[in-house]
Structures are given as structure tokens and as C-alpha cells.
Amino acid sequence: MHHDTRTAIIEAAASLFSDLGYSAVSMRDVANKVGVTPANLYHHFKGKDELIREALAHVFTHKTASLEALLNVNQDADEKLEAFVHWLVHLLAEDKIFCRLLVRELTDGDAGRLEYLSKTVFERPFTLVRSLASTRVRDGEDDFLAAVSIIGVVLGQVQLGAIVRHLPGGCSDHLDPDVITRHVIAALRECFKTTSIKDA
Amino acid sequence: MHHDTRTAIIEAAASLFSDLGYSAVSMRDVANKVGVTPANLYHHFKGKDELIREALAHVFTHKTASLEALLNVNQDADEKLEAFVHWLVHLLAEDKIFCRLLVRELTDGDAGRLEYLSKTVFERPFTLVRSLASTRVRDGEDDFLAAVSIIGVVLGQVQLGAIVRHLPGGCSDHLDPDVITRHVIAALRECFKTTSIKDA
DNA sequence: GTCTATATTCCGATAGAC
DNA sequence: GTCTATCGGAATATAGAC
Fold first, then answer.
1. Contact positions of strand C to protein Cβ (< 7 A)
2. Three-class DSSP category at A33
3. Res. B195 pLDDT band, cuts 50 70 90
4. Among the four given CATH numbers 1.10.10.60, 2.60.40.1080, 3.30.830.10, 3.90.70.10, the one describing domain B5-59
């Protein structure tokens, strides 16, 4: 399955950490999932903290690479924003390990880990969305907050998906990434349909 | 400080659980924070699971009570929606224990706890927001998803606040609940400014 | 590089005195 | 209702054989 034990450990740890949280997962749990002894983990990593950092790095690094290529194709700003929403919704909906570790870090990460998270995951997409928003927000509006809202509404949709089936009127359609994507794109189109600063 | 030890234990537990997560907090930690012995906790609660459930109930119950009164004053649908956004932003920004436990439950809660969370926290506000949205969304749009997006964008804004200072252009202004409230209200106004179904 | 075996600390939980 | 004392087990981590 894996070329080396070290990678297998990291991927097993990432999966368990995303499901249960760091402190709920023991080194024994990770070792059992890989099929090695707990002592083996301490040959590859100094301790649990290092394993957590390596697992985060493995899951977060290069996550935005596919975004770069995607946005070099579409030229129109509207199309780029819609392509971004599609990309983000599907990323969060389909890579649950990434999504859950992301939320855990936003909630629990210390200053150092949050800065690492910002650089490796958020900085590129955020800068991009902010530049797309800045040409379209109305005077007096904050393009920084607009970018946070665009990313935030997708994040919120995915997180609230956990209780959709318990809310009145909720059905499985509301968990479909394509349905969510279309909804968010339509909402943003309304939100940004005023004359852009560029046209003024 | 507290009338009874039981309440003190519950509040100390809620605070620690929200900061560190359930499994990272031991019964000893809670006991030390209260100033009693660990054995005392087992006189008031059957075990850690019961303490977790009681802490959640203490933090989540009656959280939406203030919303009811608030919305009986304002009559206009626009004003009600804006009052809701103001209420939710300030609730999530100012009651960090509530906010963090909420996110933890959305991420980690089992089916039973998620249903409990839905009923005690989300059902009333969600139904309300959905009814406000349903009169204003355009034909073909889903008022359920619109309500999820309205709640979701606020939740996303608050969660992404953890990394705002690490993002290019971020400053403390973007963490101010009043600034976030104004931004979200302005964005929703754009989003919903098309002719309502009512007017058609 | 992986194992067996173990040291040490901490955990949840209980018994019983006061 | 709160305490002291403690049990059995599980946690992180290490030592050393293979």
C-alpha cells in the first residue's frame, strides 16, 4: 500500500486525528492502524507533538496547487470567482481529513500553528479572492471582509451540513457539493452584481 | 462565587472543554479548577460522559431566548434579519465558551448530540431565518440553503477570525463584532435586494 | 527498521472515613 | 457533601535485542 512505514504512519495519524482530535488518539491507536508496534513510531518521530506537526504538514502542503492551474484558464473575473467557489466546496466536501483538520486548527491551533496554516492553506486563495472582490465591491465596502465572507460562507455551509438532516426542511440534496456550489455562486452573483469600480 | 458546587463544576468543565476539548481535559483538571478533589466530581456526576452532557446542556439551553424578545419588537422583515445578524455575531463573538463548544459539537458530535444541538440551539433561529429568507429569495432559489448561508457566513467570519491577523491586509478592525455585523448586513442587503415574491 | 519489555506518569473511577 | 487513599488500566516514552 505504502512505500515506506513513515508515510503510512503519517497518513494513519492524519486520519485518526481528523476523526477524533489529537488528544483522543493515542500512539497505540496509530500504531495499531498501521500494523506496527508503538515503539516503532518513536523511531520515526521524536514524540506525539512531532507526529501531529508532520501529519498537518502532509495534509496541508500543496493543497492550493490545483487552484493555481484552475484559475490560469478562466480569464473573466466572474468565472474565476465561480471556479474558486466550485474548487473550495468540492475540496472541503471531498477531502474530509483536510476539512476536519482545518477546522480543528482554526479552533485549537496555537499562534505558531495558525500562522503555518495561514501560509500553507489560506494565503494564496485569500489573496486571490480578495483581488477578485476588490474590483467589484461598492465604495465604502471592505474587500478584506468580502473575501473572508466568501470563504466563510463555504466553510459555514460545509460545517452546518452536520445538522442539515435535523433542521426542518433539510434533505440530502442540501449536502450535495454541486447543489451548494450553485447556491453560493447564485448568491454571490446577486451580492456583486452592482457596477464594478472598474467600469466606473 | 457559586451557590452550589455542582454548578461550579459544570461551569469549570464547560470552560475547560471549550478551550481544550473533551478528551484533553481530565476530571482532575476540572476538580483543580473548582478547588475540590476529583472524588467529589463522582458524587455529583456518574462519570465524565455525564459531566460533558450536563456542561453542554448548561451552555446551550435557553441560548435563543433573548432572540425571541428581540424579534418581537422589530416588525419589518429587513430589520428582523439585520437584528438577527447583529444578535448572532455578538453571541458568537462574546460568548467564546458557547461558540467553541458549538464548533466542537458540529465537528465531533455523534448523532444523538447533533440532534440535541439542533433542537436546543439551531431550530428556532433557523426556522426564523428561513421564513425571513423565503419571502425574499428569487424564483428557483432554495430558502433552506439561503438560511444556512446566512448563519454560515457569520459562523465562518467568526472562525476565520483566528487567522485574520496572519492574512495580508488583516487588522484588528476585522475582528470587531460591530464591523463584521455591518459588513454582513450590507452584503445580505445586496444579496436580497431584488423584488420580493411578496411584491410580485 | 522493527521488535519485546518496561519505566513512569496520568487517567477514570471506587471504597470508606468524616 | 467532601475528603484521603487507592485500584486497575492506559498513556507517553525509553532501553536494548534482533
1. 1-5, 10-16
2. helix
3. very low
4. 1.10.10.60
